[in-house]
């Protein structure tokens, strides 16, 4: 018995819709996995804008709708990161702080900016957590000290004092466990932070250089090009 054309068209339509939904779900899962793994390259490719129509409408008020979606995203990221090993206290504290900030947003632009900030903050925490796994206590303390003071001019003497260790031994241990000298690690982390600011803000390279306490804009540009292969302005133009 022949199937009616109308029924066949309906089945084809449903199959296409199901396939589209399945692909969207797989992409969503890949996004949360990228946050969990601290994989910034994948995040930039997978992160959907909050205004994407596939996300649905939770409120007739456009701003409230964005806020609701960002709260849901925050909750799902928090759960994913906890499953990936982020300490409960850290995960829930971050979640609470960001949800409070979401609630206080007074414009769609503020929500969009906060969306990117919280995604990258959780991803950075996960990346750092994976990086620190299995390291000795002094090296962990050194990394945490550096991360908390990236905007400062960091001195080896101060880092060693914080860890309660001899400078030479700390340098040797740090190199052995991370594959980098302390100086190399500091510069790489500052450049990573600078690269994010170049893409996420309108700050000039000189302002960013000052923000991360480089000795001069030329030193900043030289270090940036050595690590990324591009000057700060080239990086902003090509990667934006």
- The end-to-end span amounts to 58 Å
What is the gyration radius calculated from CA atoms? 22 Å
Multimerization state: single chain
Provide the structure class: mainly alpha
| Series of secondary-structure elements, N-terminal to C-terminal | HHHHHHHHHHHH
Tally of contiguous helical segments: 12
What's the main sheet like? none
Kindly estimate the percentage of residues that lie in beta strands according to DSSP. under 5%
What shape does the CA trace take?
globular
Work out the helicity level: over 70%
Overall mean pLDDT score?
86
Number of strands: 0
Low-confidence stretches: 17-21
Structure description:
The protein is globular. With 240 residues, it is an all-alpha fold. It starts with a helix and ends with a helix. The chain is built from 12 helices and no strands. Helix 3 packs antiparallel against helix 4 and helix 4 (88-104) packs antiparallel against helix 5 (108-132).
């Amino acid at each position: 018995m022949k199937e009616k054309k109308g029924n066949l068209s309906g089945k084809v339509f449903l199959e296409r819709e199901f396939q589209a939904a399945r692909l969207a779900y797989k992409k969503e899962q890949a996004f949360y996995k990228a946050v969990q793994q601290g994989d910034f390259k994948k995040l930039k490719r997978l992160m959907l804008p909050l205004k994407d129509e596939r996300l649905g409408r939770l409120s007739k008020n456009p701003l409230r709708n964005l806020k609701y979606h960002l709260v849901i995203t925050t909750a799902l990221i928090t759960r994913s990161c906890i499953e990936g090993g982020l300490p409960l206290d850290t995960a829930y504290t971050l979640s609470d702080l960001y949800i409070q900030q979401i609630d206080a947003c007074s414009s769609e632009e503020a929500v969009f900016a906060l969306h990117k900030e919280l995604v990258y903050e959780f991803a950075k925490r996960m990346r750092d957590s994976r990086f620190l796994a299995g390291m000795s206590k002094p090296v962990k303390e050194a990394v945490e000290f550096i991360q908390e003071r990236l905007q400062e001019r960091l001195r080896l003497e101060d880092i060693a004092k914080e860890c309660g260790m001899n400078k030479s031994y700390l340098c040797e241990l740090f190199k052995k466990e991370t594959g980098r000298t302390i100086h190399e690690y500091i510069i790489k982390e500052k450049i990573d932070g600078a690269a994010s600011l170049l893409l996420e803000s309108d700050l000039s390279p000189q302002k960013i250089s000052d923000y991360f306490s480089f000795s001069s804009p030329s030193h900043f540009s030289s270090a940036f090009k050595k690590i990324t292969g591009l000057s700060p302005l080239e990086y902003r133009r090509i990667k934006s």
